[in-house]
Amino acid sequence: MRDPRTPHFIQSPTTRRTFVAGSVSAAVAATLARYGDAVAQDATPAVASAVASPVADGEDQLEIFSWWTTAGEAAGLEQLFTAFSATNPNVEVVNAAVAGGAGTNAQVALQTRLSANQPPDSWQSHPGKELLGRYVEPGYTDPVTTLFEEQGWNETFPQGVIDQITFDGEKHLVPVGVHRGNVVFYNKQLLTDNNITVTDEWTMDDYFAAAETLAAAGVPAYALGSKDTFAVVQLFENTLLANLGPDDYTRIWNGELGWDDARVTTAIEQLARYFESVNEDHPALTWDGAIDLVYDGRAAFQSMGDWAYGDAIGKERQDTIGWVNHPGTAGSFVSVIDGFTLPKNVPHPVNARNWLIAAGSAEAQEAFAPLKGAIPARSDADASGFNEYMQWSAGDFTTDAVVPSLAHGAAGSPQFLTSVNEAIVTFIVDQDVATFQEALQFAAEDEA
């Protein structure tokens, strides 16, 4: 039997495969509390009986658009395809994934298609300001409110998640998984060899002390893939959270705290310090290429979302790494929620609806989450097969302050994120603290 951790289709910008039958609130955390009590095992649940769905009338294709192309992402997506195909065996599934930049390339390609009125049957989106600004307000999506009522999802998805996908009383996304963005993955043997110990309570000072120790040993402390701009934006937002704490971190996205705050300056200065101890080839690497350095012991740390654990599983390297909060962020959970839309003027309306029913089912999410490195978005999912990493993440999700991510669309508008991405590209080259902070202030003023 094929190892379920290994995807058995070749990922490319557009891959065809026909399957054979066979800002999140603390309310989210409270409803997922049961995840913390399950047995920790590196197991992948199988997709169980599929949810009943209407039969497509003359629709023989389903095109799904995403940016899930790395090993863990592709394997997780395949589980969702399998759930769909269980009740739609004669439908060809077209995997229209676009690689690169944590969705940056895909979003550009998608906007081109939407502007030309050529939508796929469903596409991946984050909730919050990304969903609203990119897709709902321009009129590219139809509501899925009726599906929530028919499938009983108003009772099975946490209210805090539902709030992030609801605009003017209508729901516009079917959530499939919840990621954590403020995680540091590290090479266990490398830290042991250099007598470095990390805990969830470690601080930014602890990190930079470890970086000095590693520098003396001739090892880069931080594995950076700055070819993916988002990887630096995410490192910045985690460092910002470490300096502001969850309350003021939330306030700055709500416009209640200025970007001229001295703690923002400190966070940018610390971001610049990271570049003193990164791998020299970082401009040529994507995030997943950079984390290979951690697996191999050629660099010690990477601050990344927990899809990195899914990547490790997909590459069978999970035994080489440990994980810990980003330094200074104990008690906070940066949430990154994934879901799928229902397009307006959808090409295959019955198949699109069936896809959302399958992706929203507990069985599909239980199979998807361990490979993707996520927690199911549903509160009633069976956690008994969750691996050790998921147990840790889910446990913190039940107790920590849950805050949104800028790098992944929820905290800031698309316009603000574009401005930050542009400023980060310059910062990667010059590490000019004052210029970057001014760019943040200008971006906020443009939105006011």
Question: Can you give a write-up of this model?
Answer:
Helix 10 packs antiparallel against helix 11, helix 11 crosses helix 18 (433-447) and helix 17 (414-430) runs antiparallel to helix 18. The longest helix is centred in the middle third of the chain and has 25 residues, at 229-253. Mean pLDDT is 87; it is low at 1-56. Strands 1, 2, 3, 4, 7, 11, 12 and 13 form an eight-stranded mixed beta sheet that branches. The relative contact order is 0.21. The chain has 448 residues and is an alpha+beta fold. It is 45% helix and 13% strand. It folds into two domains: 15-178 and 337-391, D-Maltodextrin-Binding Protein, domain 2, CATH 3.40.190; 183-328 and 413-447, D-Maltodextrin-Binding Protein, domain 2 (3-Layer(aba) Sandwich).
Summary tags:
single chain; 448 residues; alpha+beta; D-Maltodextrin-Binding Protein, domain 2; 2 domains; eight-stranded mixed β-sheet; three-stranded antiparallel β-sheet; 13 strands; 45% helix; globular; disordered N terminus
